[in-house]
Structure formats: C-alpha cells, structure tokens
Amino acid sequence: xxxxxxxxxxxxxxxxxxxxxxxxxxxxxxxxxxxxxxxxxxxxxxxxxxxxxxxxxxxxxxxxxxxxxxxxxxxxxxxxxxxxxxxxxxxxxxxxxxxxxxxxxxxxxxxxxxxxxxxxxxxxxxxxxxxxxxxxxxxxxxxxxxxxxxx
Length: 151
Known about the structure:
This protein has three helices and no strands. The protein has 151 residues and is an all-alpha fold. The radius of gyration is 57 Å and the shape is elongated. 0% of the residues are buried.
C-alpha cells in the first residue's frame, strides 16, 4: 500500500507539478533571448558609433560668431518692429483721446456761446428797461420844465 501511495504521489507530481519543466523552458528562453538581443545591441551600438560623428559634422555650424550675430540682428529687427507697433498703438490711443477732447471742447464752446447769448439778451433787456425808464424820467422832467418855464 505504501508503494501505491508513493506511485500515486509520483504520478500526481508528474501530472500536476510542472515546475521543473517550466524552469527549464524559462532558462532556455532567457538564454536564447540574451544571445539574439546581444547581437542586435552590438549592431545598434556600432551604427550609433558611426553615425554620431557624421551628424556632429553636419549639424553643428562651425561659425558660431556669425550665427550669433545673425540671431542678434534678427532679435533687434523684431524689437524694432515691436516698438513701432507700440508707438502706433500709443498714437492711435492719443488720437482717439484728442478727438474725444476736441468733441468735449466743442460742446463746452457751444454751451459757452449759448450762455453768452442768454447773458447778452438779459443785458439788452435790462438796458432796454433802463433806457425806457430814463426816457420816461426825461420826458417827465421835460414836462416839468415846460410847466415851469415861462413861455
């Protein structure tokens, strides 16, 4: 019976316990992967080693001073253009303010002229009243003088 239990355990471990087979397959896969990858990486490194100096020669300009002076010129031109735009905006803003002030001054001048006309009419009216009163006084004085004069 002991032998049967051992055989059953042996059969069960062979049927259900796959760890030794899986471990062997994993080791085989890793070994194959590392070999194939190693060659691919060495080829990539050789290619990069070859291409980097060529890229440096093609991409990097040899005349840094000339390049920098060109960049400075472009920046100065952009700055000048920005200043011109700001100046135009300021002039436009001042122009609209000036037009607003001119309209306000025209309105104030028209109001001033209306007020002067009203005051002129008041003065003319007072003058006419005063002239009328003086005329009346003089005519009364003239009558009084004619009464007293012997003619």
